[in-house]
Amino acid sequence: MRRLSYCVGTLGTHTEIKRVAEEKVTLPCHHQLGLQEKDTLDIEWLLTDNEGKQKVVITYSSRHVYNNLTEEQNGRVAFASNFLAGDASLQIEPLKPSDEGQYTCKVKNSGRYVWNYVILKVLVRPSKPKCELEGELTEGSDLTLQCESSSGTKPIVYYWQRIREKEGEDEHLPPKSRIDYNNPGRVLLQNLTMSSSGLYQCTAGNEAGKESCVVRVTVQYVQSIGMVAGAVTGIVAGALLIFFLVWLLIRRKDKERYEEERPNEIREDAEAPKARLVKPSSSSSGSRSSRSGSSSTRSTANSASRSQRTLSTEAAPQPGLAPQPYSLLGPDLRGFEPKKVHHATLTKAEATPSMILSQSGTFQTV
Length: 366
Hints:
Oligomer: single chain
Protein name: CXADR-like membrane protein isoform X2
Shape: elongated
Organism: Castor canadensis
Distance between the termini: 151 Å
């Protein structure tokens, strides 16, 4: 505390005091006027704030102290010592930012005056800053560290550093770091590497004190991100392939089942027509030939003649053997061309019984 000089009837000295908010401050004011006439002693403290408004803080008059003049100062202001003995210093506790300004101590007694002036500056500590990250936490990318306090006496200085977690780690920022001087709370980390990972601390400070915050930076491998994406893609592709194979297997089984059931349906519903081939010498064939009509007789004769001509071109018949004509009963077979038959086959056919010819190419014995 500095003792102020005074002059009777003139202005005293000026001094400046800085204190931190919430602390206690004592504004000095000393005089010798109280030793003359105590009943006529008057003491008055005045405050002129930063906006130029003036108000009374505390007074002593007519042997009474008045220190409850405003609600804002109620209970926080008082005389620091024995003001009647010459120490009219003012005490303020706890200090608030609104207490900042110019204080005037005015002492009057028996027509003599003393003025002392004190400029009080109230400093506010920075509020706890908020640390944020802007950018991608991958190798080769750029990352911005952001730090800012919402309140505090200007100017506020920001400082970034790394916190050592293991022995041998560097507390300095990575080599490729750049500070934004227009905004000191911003630091750009360029071309991140795995060694850039760690804890970073931002400290905001002014004349009143310091506050800090911490943020962790974890740089990720670009390859690891690609591997994760590839694994996910592979799992999805594998699931689709399995689904497709199951679908093909089910479709194939359904097709095989359909093919097995279809022939059974054809055998049950369809029946081939039949035809009979009978000798004309037989008694039964005679009666049937008479019912078939003249058209059937002509068709059979034409077929027999064509057959005989075909046989004659291939081989001459043996003496004593005569071909036996056959009549074809059943569906109309006009335009039917018999196959060429060898002589030996024809000889064997004369000794076998008559056969019934059906559309399906089988014979039935009559």
